[in-house]
Specification:
By secondary structure, the chain is an alpha/beta fold. It has one domain (23-301): Ureohydrolase domain (Arginase, Chain A, 3-Layer(aba) Sandwich), CATH 3.40.800.10. 32% of the residues lie in helices and 19% in strands. It has 9 helices and 10 strands. The protein has helices at 5-8, 54-62, 92-109, 123-134, 160-167, 186-195, 210-220, 252-260, 284-301, and strands at residues 30-39, 68-69, 73-74, 78-84, 112-117, 137-142, 172-179, 198-201, 225-230, 267-273. The strands form 2 sheets. It has an 8-stranded parallel beta sheet with strand order 4-1-5-10-9-6-7-8, sandwiched between helices. A two-stranded antiparallel sheet has the order 2-3. It is globular, with a radius of gyration of 19 Å.
Length: 306
Amino acid sequence: MDMGIEDLLSAPGAPLLRDPGDERIGGLGECAGSALVGVPWDWSVTGRPGPRLAPQKIRSYLYGLTPFSPTHGPIKCRPRDLGDIRVAPGEWGTTRARIASASRILLGGYERVYLVGGDHSIAGPALEALASVEGRASLVMLDHHYDLRSTSEGLTSGSWLYEVLSKAPGRVDALVVGVGDYSNPSYLAERAKRLGVKVIPRLSLLKGEGLDAVRSIIDSLEEPIYLSIDMDHLDQAYAPGVNAPGVMGMDPRETLLILRSLSGRRVRVVDLVEVNPLVDVADSTSRLAAKILAYLFNLLEAGGDA
């Protein structure tokens, strides 16, 4: 039987493995109430620029994962991917306004929004938008740092939470989990206490009551919830490709146990930030970020259990 050229060629980028039963997250139907957008901004990074490249890198691994977990069952749908917010390179004022406007619009049309950064400063306008739309919000942040800095000049992704709490006193309750030793100036701990930010240091999680304390605080938080995942909360052995590696940071298994505490809660916004593909090792940080998002899809979109 003669073959035509279409019988001899595969589509560009098609996998070599030809298994018709091998389903991938990228081929799932869309969740009716959830959207995902990239935010390729990293001009607030003072260390190692590169997170602007993360949204596409993380997507490439996320959509290549299979939706099946032998422990938690299948992911049944994926958030609708709307593309990337149009950042204005180097112009934070313009970009900030666009993130805020996009967040308000998305929150008006979707129950849950996933933001894939980018550096951590993108969380500021998104959290403010949620507090504006809902009247208030609770923040659960996994981070090796407080992000409560104030600088004399220039931009830093480490000041966004202080800016939010200063602008909207009483409208945001914050919990920060994973703050590392010898990684932050002391005035930030004092500022966190003054602002009422609840802090669970990284090493506290190694104690038996550490994770219980996190769960107890999360249970007490009012909804809606904003979940912010800075990948530098993880130890640099797991996440080397970040702006400020978390030396003696958290273990991914601890992260998943904390995420389980959000099961059944009204989580309206999730951001995942600070992946830097330019300094990553074998794309390990991007791969881990993609898998964390997959767990969240299972946990939040299909009633699964991370």
